[in-house]
Design goal:
Layout lengths: L2 H5 L1 E5 L4 H12 L3 E6 L17 E5 L5 H8 L4 E4 L12 H19 L2 E5 L11 H16 L4 E5 L2 E2 L6 H10 L2 E5 L5 E2 L2 E2 H13 L7 E4 L5 E2 H12 L4 E5 L1 H11 L11 H6 L8 H6 L17 H5 L16
Parallel strand pairs: 1-2, 1-4, 2-3, 4-5, 5-6, 6-11, 7-10, 8-13
Antiparallel strand pairs: 9-12
Helix pairs in contact: 2-7, 3-4, 4-5, 6-8
Length: 326
């Protein structure tokens, strides 16, 4: 922690979300002043203990409303955008949040004279048939035009205590008679630990990692969808059969599930489209050092981390090696 850090203000859009809260923690430890820009500041108070008194402040901002974005970014030295959605709900559409919203943040950062760090995703492609990947790609294109020196981080599937990947399937394994392997479970992922992403962001803010690049963030191992499910089931000590679902059938199921109001669908047709492509760090990024290792961050393995938060999905009454009830 340095005096210079204490004078810098970092505004984090989506700072109370899964990835955002880890970024807040990493920057607070370094002594930066942090402004958390979220739709419901009254629900973000749990972040306050991560910093010293007065170090973390909160402001209301909604990426769909430009004035709130401009106001939140004013006076910032760095602006970080980690707002994203996995499926559409209500007025939160991919185009509104991940394209229009990202453009608004970039323009607000430029107006404030702040540097920008934008969290995108591996697979971002403005020409993709997937709305998620398409809007991520359109956002990247717009950001490079608005702020050419912006830093873009593209994670693979993110894991950690609040993730929506391993948690989702572990919860499903408690009641479902089988687990689905969409497309045969052959899609490859490079799961990246949420705290490693936060460290990468912090290093860009510190200046110890080069800004203005597009980094692809993946963990130390590539795992297929099936291998991820095997590992998850091993951790929660449950045995489940697999049923291979062709992409077409999975998409149909997703379409039907998406019709149920006020309930997050287990899979959507758009997510099925994403599963048709591997989600791993490209050879170009590896060769050019645009990776976690290139930023000086040692990627964390999945297996040592999962038990810490998947323990609650073990059969009731089961005991761990420590002798404590699971």
């Amino acid at each position: 922690m340095t005096l210079a850090n204490q004078t810098k203000l970092v505004t984090i859009f989506g700072g109370s979300g899964f990835v955002g809260r880890y970024i807040v923690r990493a920057l607070a430890k370094r002594g930066y002043r942090i402004r958390v820009a979220v739709r419901r500041p009254d629900l973000a108070g749990f972040l306050q203990p991560l910093g010293n008194v007065g170090q973390i402040s909160f402001v209301q901002a909604n990426l769909r409303y430009r004035n709130s974005v401009d106001s939140a970014a004013q006076g910032s030295d760095f602006v970080i955008n980690c707002v994203g959605i996995l499926h559409e709900a209500g007025r939160n559409k991919f185009d509104a949040v991940q394209d229009f919203g990202a453009r608004a943040v970039a323009e607000a950062a430029r107006a404030a004279g702040a540097k920008l760090i934008h969290l995108s995703a591996i697979g971002a492609d403005a020409s993709s048939s997937s709305s998620y990947a398409r809007t991520k790609g359109l956002a990247e294109k717009a950001i490079r035009e608005i702020l050419p020196d912006a830093t873009i981080l593209r994670p693979s599937v993110v894991f950690g205590p609040e993730d929506q990947f391993f948690n989702k399937f572990a919860n499903m394994a408690r009641t479902a008679p089988f687990l689905p392997l969409i497309g045969g479970g052959k899609t490859a992922f490079q799961p990246v630990y949420v705290a490693d992403i936060a460290e990468a962001v912090a290093r860009v803010v510190d200046g110890s990692a080069q800004s203005g690049k597009i980094y692809e963030l993946g963990g130390p191992e590539v795992l297929t969808f099936r291998q991820c499910m095997d590992l998850m089931l091993s951790v929660i000590d449950r045995k489940k059969s697999y049923v291979s679902l062709p992409f077409s059938i999975a998409s149909l199921i997703g379409s039907v599930a998406s019709l149920v109001p006020f309930v997050a669908p287990p899979i959507t047709p758009d997510q099925v489209k994403l599963l048709k492509q591997d989600n791993v760090v490209s050879k170009e990024a590896e060769a050019e050092g645009r990776t976690l290792a290139g930023m000086g961050v040692k990627p964390t393995l999945v297996e040592p981390i999962l038990p810490a938060y998947l323990v609650r999905y073990r059969p009731q009454g089961q005991y761990t090696r420590s002798g404590k009830a699971a």
